[in-house]
Amino acid sequence: FPQDAQWNDIDYMDGYRDFTLDSQKFASLPSLVQDLHKHGQRYVMILDPGISSTSPHGSYWPFDEGLRRGLFLNTTQGQPLIGQVWPGFTAFADFSNPDTHQWWLENLQHFYAHVPFDGLWIDMNEPSNFMDGSEDGCPPGDFDSPPYTPAVLGDSLSAKTVCASAKQKASVHYNLHNLYGLMEAKATASALIQIRGKRPFIISRSTFPSQGRYSGHWLGDNRSQWKDMYYSIPGLLSFSLFGIPLVGADICGFSGSTSEELCTRWMQLGAFYPFARNHNTQNEKAQDPTAFSPAARTAMKDVLLTRYSLLPFLYTLFHRAHLQGDTVARPLFFEFPWDVATWELDRQFLWGRSLLVTPVLEPRVDSVTGYVPQGTWYDLYTGSSVNSSGEMLKMSAPLEHLNLHIREGSILPTQKPGTTTEMTRGNPLRLIVALSSNATAWGDLFWDDGESLDTFEQGNYSYVVFNVTQNIFTSTVLHASTEATKVTIGTLSIFGVQKPPSKVLLNGQEKPFSYLDNQVLTVSDLGISLSQGFSLRWL
Asked: Domain Glycosyl hydrolase family 31 C-terminal, which positions (predicted)?
């Protein structure tokens, strides 16, 4: 099975305290992380902003040092505000204070020396509190009891969070509450850059506009129910609109026991979340792919391999999100705003402008009805075409199948999938051309080393544009780097070629090809470096 990352929830900690390790249950974690790295995989761990305040003085540096430097939220009396989270009584880091960023960095550096993590999962950062306000409640006043209280959980601004009157470096918490997750994400991103010298990978529960620059987001603790799987799609699309493109839900559900059918369908949908992670709570049945029948395992493996094959396309979409704020997963009305039928669609979505995803969201069915906008769409797997006038179409959807269609006029860069992104990166590319009704198509590919900082800004990347017109495919290298020399283009598949060609010419030289009755032309064994432009013509 493809797997790129192993995650840890709070169980790895000693008494659920940040920056500690359970020396009994997780003593071998450093060697596990070393083994993951040996196999080209990554390790991501959870952190909370609540710092345990009850350890004996001198035994827990994060609290002792934070207290000494004055880095926690304070009450109106100037003392650390004490709430309660997983480790018990806790103080809350004040990320509006630049000195807190330095303390956060130092804590992470100390832990990284023992467990060299690759990314961080920041949770409970609304901030969440098992108490209402603090151990002493909240003082009277307009901050905690404003003249108008929004319709919030518990009918109080302090319900399950800290007092709105709490003091922070930048302002009163009333003014900063919604920024708390963003400020923690900024501190965490800065720390990861300084520690690892690579792009920071962060997933955050609490978010605010602009946070897509610093972190991604998961949609919180869902349930193993069909309706929760469906709800994840509007959640996914909403956060795409908010400027946080790296988003997804817990695949197969977090709480409750999943079923084999639900988990199989959810793995199919989840493989097309920009952020794809299977995660569940304690004391429920296992829901990793190996926990199910051979048929379900095969279906899950197949869809994960499909995702991995599309990584070059997905990565290019993320580059566009970085460069100009594009969405990665997007609602259909973004591409077809004139088509009123797309305005309320929330059971399908697109990757970029080109790939239509139509998942099954109901139990005990072997077909799905989805909207197909006007034009020609091609089955990703077979290249067979569907000509739509803009209508709801019934599609075959046995348990092992997810419907994926490519929009006419698109060129998708794909790759032979491996079991990790690192392994996949070394495999040959396959370019899939979906010809339009006038036999044209366009696509592009952004390629760099995948993890260095500011590759685009420093020019350490390759950018290639693909184009088809008048039966001629051209690959034009607009910017080149050494990374592109490590990758070859192996196969060109052209969907929608109306009649069998008599010959195919690669840079003027005749080349073997195959042509199927469903109008798919395939040219294999190209062996062309991505760094080289080329043309291919069929006659």
From this structure: 325-412
pLDDT for residue 183: 99
- Catalytic positions are 123, 126
Rounded Cα–Cα distance for residues 516 and 508 (Å): 23
For residue 45, give the DSSP letter: E
Cα separation, 518 vs 514, in Å, equals 12
Span between the terminal Cα atoms of the chain, in Å: 41
Closest CA to 41 of 73, 9, 3: 3
Kindly report, residue by residue over 91-121, the tens digit of the pLDDT: 999 999 999 999 999 999 999 999 999 999 9
CB atoms under 10 Å from CB of 187, counted, come to 25
Residue 205: what residue type? Answer: R
Whether 475 contacts 457, CB under 8 Å: no
d(CA 73, CA 146): 20
CA 499 distance to own-chain centroid: 40
Q: What is the Cα–Cα distance from 529 to 485, expressed in whole angstroms?
A: 6
Give the separation between CA 250 and CA 123, rounded to whole angstroms: 14
| DSSP 8-state secondary structure symbol assigned to residue 428 | P
Contacts of 261 (CB under 8 A, 6+ apart): 363, 364, 399
CA angle 358, 359, 361 (to 5 degrees): 135
Domains identified in the chain and CATH numbers: 1-73+81-129+169-218 (3.20.20.80), 410-538 (2.60.40.1180)
Packing angle, helices 61-69 and 98-112, rounded to 10: 160
**What is this structure's pTM?**
0.97
311, two tokens: 């990584």
Pairing of strands 375-379, 385-388: antiparallel
